[in-house]
Amino acid sequence: MAEATLAIHGGPQAFAEGPFQWPLRDDRVFAALEAAWLDGGWGLYEGPHSQAFSDALRKFHDLPFVSLCCSGTLAVELALRGAGVTAGDEVVLAGYDYPGNFRCIEAVGAVPVLADIGSGGWCLAADRLESALSHRPRAIILSHLHGSLADAEAICQLAVSRGVAVIEDACQVPGAIVQHRPAGCWGVASVLSFGGSKLLTAGRGGAVLTADERVHQRIKVFSERGNQAFPLSELQAAVLLPQLTQLPDRNRTRRENAQYLVDALRDIPQLRPVSTIAGNEPVHYKLGWLLDSERIAREDLIVALRAEGVPIDAGFPGFIRRGSRRCRRAGDLPNSELASARTLLLHHPVLLSNRDTLDRLAQAIRKVMVALA
Ligand SMILES: *Cc1c(COP(=O)(O)O)cnc(C)c1O
User: Fold this and answer.
1) pTM of the prediction?
2) Are residues 257 and 124 part of one domain?
3) Alpha-carbon span 81 to 85, nearest angstrom
4) pLDDT tens, 156-184?
5) CA–CA separation, 304 vs 309, rounded Å?
6) Mean pLDDT for the chain?
7) Which of 200, 228, 243 is the last residue of a domain?
8) Is the minimum distance from the CB of 343 to ligand 1 under 6 angstroms?
């Protein structure tokens, strides 16, 4: 039957509407660019657009201090410095996390300590932190990844009781609600990215949010070198502001569509979705599954899905193979290891499609899963 022939075997592409455009061609962004041209903001070191955007971020998160900067990665480093992390300190991060976060810890001269993620998603879990906390680390990097949200309440409580600073990495989840509070409000310092693939994008850029004036002041002093050394430009700030205004609506659409896809594929036993928690409103930069199969090789699956036109990728490589000269492992990391080997990520632009497109996307995924199983 021609229909069952996979695209990798010469069959027709099941889902031919990709690649999905990002960033969107957005009239409000065009108007912002035009405004920045008209008012001369495009050529200023600092001006009304950066001011308006950081005011909007403050208001959105109900926090007093925002430092705009050049990338999410640099924002993580600034957050560590702002929290007072210095050479020789230990900083806990998940055995499965954004690669740059490990490097940021090294960049401040601190030592990464790997703790395991929980089993229902891709985030650190409070009940797996005991051994990591035993050496009195200075900080923990808490990332919300792939549509899963960390148990921030329990982890922050634990951290506060041990005098450990939480750095919240909210790069993938701007606008998420984590246990009834916005993502970005849980850390001593919290981080956003405005990179080219992110939900709020200016091609590049980032921000550190904090309620702590000393943290904000340390970041300011480190960044100020006669001029801002790691700046976000006026032009970047100008295009970000209208995206922040639209973020809640778009997040809602992506969330509903992600749920629709997860439900449409729930009967496929080899695809394990994230477990959802009441009181949370996840945000989908990626929609993640764990491939729960010994038979299907993840790389084969990705090649076959991409041939069908499905925008899917592997997750992060994780840090489970990093040597003991670069980091310390606090206990076993079975969930991080599984996530490193088995994560599948659907990229977000497709989540703004209509239901007909989502149905065909689910069909394409189903067809490949059945053929490879
Ligand atoms: C993208 C990302 C970053 C880094 O952001 P850049 O702006 O690309 O430097 C950090 N953490 C996470 C979880 C990310 O997804």
Assistant:
1) 0.97
2) no
3) 5
4) 999 999 999 999 999 999 999 999 999 99
5) 9
6) 95
7) 243
8) no
* SS3 state at 270: coil
* Any domain includes 12: no
Cβ–ligand 1 distance for 171 under 6 Å, the answer yes
β-bridge mates for residue 347, sequence order: 286
Domain that holds residue 72: 27-243
Residue bearing the CA closest to ligand 1, atom 8: 195
Task: Please name the residue whose Cα sits nearest to atom 7 of ligand 1.
Answer: 72
Q: Are residues 198 and 255 in the same domain?
A: no
Per-residue b/e over 52-72, b at no fewer than 16 CB within 10 Å?
Answer: bbbebbeebbebebbbbbbbb
Whether 120 has a pLDDT exceeding 90, the answer reads no
179 and 274, same domain (yes or no): no
Q: What's the mean pLDDT in 228-232?
A: 97
CA end-to-end span of the chain, whole Å?
A: 18
Residue 169 CB–ligand 1 contact under 6 Å: yes
User: Considering 188, 221, 243, which residue would you say is the last residue of a domain?
Assistant: 243
- Does 190 contact ligand 1 (Cβ within 6 A)? no
Name the residue of 69, 97, 98 whose CB sits within 8 Å of the most ligand 1 atoms, as the mutation to test its pocket: 98
Q: Which of 143, 148, 172 to mutate to test the pocket of ligand 1 (most atoms within 8 A of CB)?
A: 172
Q: Do 277 and 233 reside in the same domain of the chain? A: no
294-324 pLDDT per residue, tens: 999 999 999 999 999 999 999 999 999 999 9
**How much distance in Å is there from the Cα of 98 to the middle of ligand 1?**
7
What's residue 370's pLDDT?
Answer: 94
